Every structure is written in C-alpha cells, then in structure tokens.
Amino acid sequence: MSSVDRAATIDPPIDPETVTELATRIQGPVLAPADEAYDAERSGNQTARRHHPDLIVGATGAADVQAAVTFAREHGLPVAVQGTGHASAAVAADGGLLITTSRMQGIRVSPGTGTAWVAAGTRWEQVIHEAAAAGLAPLSGSAPGVGVVSYTLGGGLGLLSRRYGFAADHVRSLDVVTADGRLRQVSAEADPDLFWALRGGRDNFGVVTGIEIDLMPVTTIYGGGLFFAADAITEVFDAYVRWTAHLPDEMTSSIAMIAFPDAPMLPPPLRGRYVAHVRITYSADDLRPGADLVAPLRELEPFIDTVKEMPYSQGGTIHNDPPIPGAFESFTALLHDFDTTGVHALFALAGPQAAVPHVIELRHLGGQLANPPAVGNAVGGRHARYAINVISRLERAELSEIRPAHERIFAALEPWVVGRTLNFLNGADDAKYVRSAYEPKDYQRLTEIKAAYDPENLFRLNHNIPPATSQGS
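Above: the chain sequence. Below: its structure as tokens.
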C-alpha cells in the first residue's frame, strides 16, 4: 500500500486545519502520508520495517519535541521516536505520531571533566572525532554510524565494554520530554527514578533530546580482525569460546560467522566465501600484552590478520559493519555460558551448509559488564557471559524462510539462554521478550515508574513496558 493510499484509510483522519496549526508551532517539517517527503522521513537503516505514522514531526530541538508530544497527548495519538544514523525501527509504528531526531545535532566536549553533552540526533562517529581531539574516547558501538541516544538508552555494548561496562553506566544526565510535555533534566539527584528507568528502558518514558556522558582516557587500541576459512570454522569457534574463559577485562571481542555474497564491493579474498571473523579490541594503559593474548588464535592460521595498534578513531574498521541501509531480519539471546555442545548445535543449523545465509555473532560479555554501576540503572542481563545475534538479509532469502530458520536456531540454543537484550530485539515485540531483557524486580519497578510518568502509555510504539495500572499490578 502506498503512503497516499494509506492516507485515505486513517480512521478518523486528522483534521488538516489541526495539522496546519501544529505546523505553526514546529520549526521542522510536519508531514502527513500524502506529503512527498513522508517516505524519506520515516525511513531508517532498516528498510524492511518502516513506520507508517499518521503524522511525522521532524524535530529541530527540544521545543519541537515538546509541541509534538503535547499535540499527540491532546489528540490521543501514541508516540514513536526514530533516532539517527544506523538506528532502525525496532517496532514499526502503525499510526500515531512519529518524532524524528536526525536534525538535532550538537556536541560539547569538556576535557576538564572528561564528559560530553550530545544532542539526540548525533552519531557516534561525530563524538569520536570531537573526543579524540581532547585525547578521549566515548563508549561507542562497533558501528560508528549508530545514533548515540538510542544505543545508550538500550544499554550499549561496544568496543570497550568489558573494560568500562555498558554505555548506559556512564550517563551523567539526560534532557527528556515526558508525556506531560515537560522538558526535564534528570540525573541521580533530579528525578532519580526516571533517571534509573531511562538508562535501560529506552524510549518508554519520554523523548530524550540530549545526553551527558563520560568519556574515557583512551587514544589507542590494539584491535582488528582475524578471518578463517570455512573448513576451520568449527575448530575456530570452539577455540574462541575456550579462549574467552580467562581473558582480562581489557580484552573485548566477538566472533562472527558470515556468508559473504559474491559482490564486487567486497575485497576479493572475501567474495562468495563463508568465513569466521574474530573481532579484537584490547584497551589498556600498556598495549603490549595484547599480542600475547591474541597469539593462541593466530596459531589457528587466519588467512587475513588485521590486528594491530590503531587510533580509537579507526575502531569502526574492526567490525566493518555496512554503513548503508538494508532489509534484514534479526533476533538475539543472552547466554549464561557456551560450550562445544552448543557450538555443534549452532553449526548443525546455521553453518556453511544452511539453506538460509546468516551473519551470526557471538559477543563475549563479563568483565565490567557484570558489575553494577556506581549509579544504578535498569540495564539487565549482567550475569550473561555471551550475547548472540543472528541477522539475515532479505535480498538473500525470503522472510518465510528466514523466520522459521531463526526459530530453529534459538530453539536449539534454549538450554543456554538466560534472557534478551533490548537493543538487538528488532521486530520481536512480544511482551515476554521485553520482560526477559530485565531482572523481574527491575521490570516491576519499570512498570511502576511508567505509571508515574506515562500512565496513558503514550510512548507505546516500541518494545513496550506498560504502566503498572494497565497490568493490574
């Protein structure tokens, strides 16, 4: 259905005069489905799952967000938020009002305090650049094109995670518009319950317009990738799991199985090949031990080895995630442990012989991720030892093939599963998966805070945490 066709089906339609009146209070664009710019504005990195809102507000600042939220509340429209850069529609909004934040740009680095204030539409690559000039680094993700706010509010697993913990653990304050249209600056001292809930609860409690974060004294890392051929993948994967058993916190890593297409934009050694890709980031005051730690993996004879000392600003080359939008389906799980039995169960369903090509990444957790932060937050899964993500691109298989394949993979992994992580749930909006991203007592507290700040569940076009009153709690 085209956006123009869909505009005729909205019931009841929003009065055009009402929309025009809203536009007088908004600096950015206000778009209905029939507008020419509507499709581009609603599209993110995930092209297979797009929002279909009744209205879009392209916010230019906090005042636009306040006006949009107030309008939505007055007209009974649920609110969705779409971040910037690599951010995707975690759950596609069907109807309601979508606020996009990509126009809200800005960074202020404070070298003296080792912090930065970042506007909602900013990408990590921008923060990395500004922080590097001060000899600092943010707790950014593997893809520098990811939006700062959505990544951080969901927890934030990145290149330095085992050394420093979740990105959400290092938030100083947040500027957020809540369901009443009020702009609040929340911190451990101001609105502490809301501050706790936002760091882990993502967009369930308001629209964050700015965030103050810690920066780390990191300029150089020992990092890169080791690529192994298909006939060695089982051995390498098993060796990787055993290798992670006794690593220091300074080593953050993952291993991915990738079925590369035979595409001209890829380096010739990778075209059309099924490979294992070990991603390495060693961060310490002294980087020399990094080579000794990686040595057992090098003994397995990778056919490409890019691991070396590099500026943190080049960290995006380690995972080398594609920066362009795409259509894909993915799912995730947190694992309490993994072993040879699990490796073989995974390969039986998702190895080189699988009918549906996947990218499967196993991320090593633990280290500082396992420890509660100085100021508590809602991020769950701290007891997990690994996170596994399965991604399948729709141009290489039909959705009717991909979803059953994912179900079989995660059914086989069930003996090791201890929960989920919100940032990688993608389209899985089943309430049980959202609950599984949190400790039970934390989830209950989240529903109570939701009832206090958003009792009507205005912010529900997401991986929703409903207010306690609507659950009979």
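Residues 399-413 form the longest helix (15 residues).
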